Amino acid sequence: MNNIKHIFFDLDHTLWDFETNSDIAFAAIFKKYGVNTSLDKFLNYYRNINENYWKLYREERITKEELRIGRLRDAFAKIKYQVDMDLIDNLSVDYIEYLPKNNQLFDGTFEILEHLKPNYKMHIITNGFNEVQFKKIENSGLTKYFDKTITSEEAGVKKPNPIIFQYALQQTNALPSESIMIGDNWEADIMGAKNVGFDVIYCNFNAKPVSENIKSVSKLIEIKQYL
Predict the structure, then answer these.
(1) In this structure, are 28 and 48 located in the same domain?
(2) Which residues is 223 bridged to in the sheet?
(3) Average of per-residue pLDDT values in the chain
(4) In which domain, by residue range, is 220 found?
(5) What is the strand order of the sheet 6-9 is part of?
(6) Which residues form a coiled coil (predicted)?
(7) Is the Cβ–Cβ distance between 8 and 181 less than 8 Å?
(8) Nearest to residue 106, comparing CAs of 183, 53, 43?
(9) Among 57, 61, 188, 217, which is disulfide-ready with 159 (CB 3.0 to 4.6 Å)?
């Protein structure tokens, strides 16, 4: 892989431990607003609901606001906990504020970035919201490792739309043949980048079946075997 000059990372679920940080944020805002229900029960439903809402958002089938409100409304409905829309609105706003205050990263994040930084230009491509993603990167100590951060709001489309990858190449003066995408989402990161001509490494942290012709790792530090 001597031709690779640019490494593009996904952020959430790849470097930044979204589930852990999200759980901490919910614990804080539930306490703030006196939400008197089992947090574990809520989160058990919320995680899948949130994943489905993000899929709809990637596919341009819902708006940012529908994602922020709908995922909370549906999770509370699942556990049959009565909440009014004012509380849901307050929770959705505070969740976005609290989320980047908690910045646990996956094991090996700093070690692999230190390993890669001397030899490659590194960037981030993320579908997350601008007002949150840049805070996550700064607060978690990742800023110094990355030259460019490309967000879907900036590009106008979301992964796996080829336009965001083409936009990223333009912003970084990179060619597809010298670029590799590293991420956890098969559809958005791996297939999206591969379809534009990037090489790819799949962060297969949940040990899903993977085609033999796709490079994959179960831990970030295993990226060393490829780069």
Answers:
(1) yes
(2) none
(3) 96
(4) 6-16+104-225
(5) 148-151, 121-126, 6-9, 179-183, 199-203, 215-217
(6) none
(7) yes
(8) 183
(9) 188
Check residue 210 and give its pLDDT: 85
Identify whether residues 10 and 50 lie together within a single domain: no
Residues of the chain with pLDDT > 70, as a percent, come to: 100
CA pair distance 50, 119, nearest whole angstrom: 36
CATH classification at residue 217: 3.40.50.1000
Q: How far apart are CA 220 and CA 106, in angstroms?
A: 8
Q: Is residue 58 a contact partner of residue 158, using CB atoms and an 8 Å limit?
A: yes
Give residue 4's identity as a one-letter amino acid code. I
Nearest CA to 155 among 199, 125, 185? 125
| Domains of the chain: total | 2
| 1-38: pLDDT as tens digits | 789 999 999 999 999 999 999 999 999 999 999 999 99
Mean pLDDT of 145-160: 96
Give CA–CA dist 70/101, Å, rounded: 23
Count of H-run helices and E-run strands, the chain: 9, 6
Task: Give this prediction's pTM.
Answer: 0.95
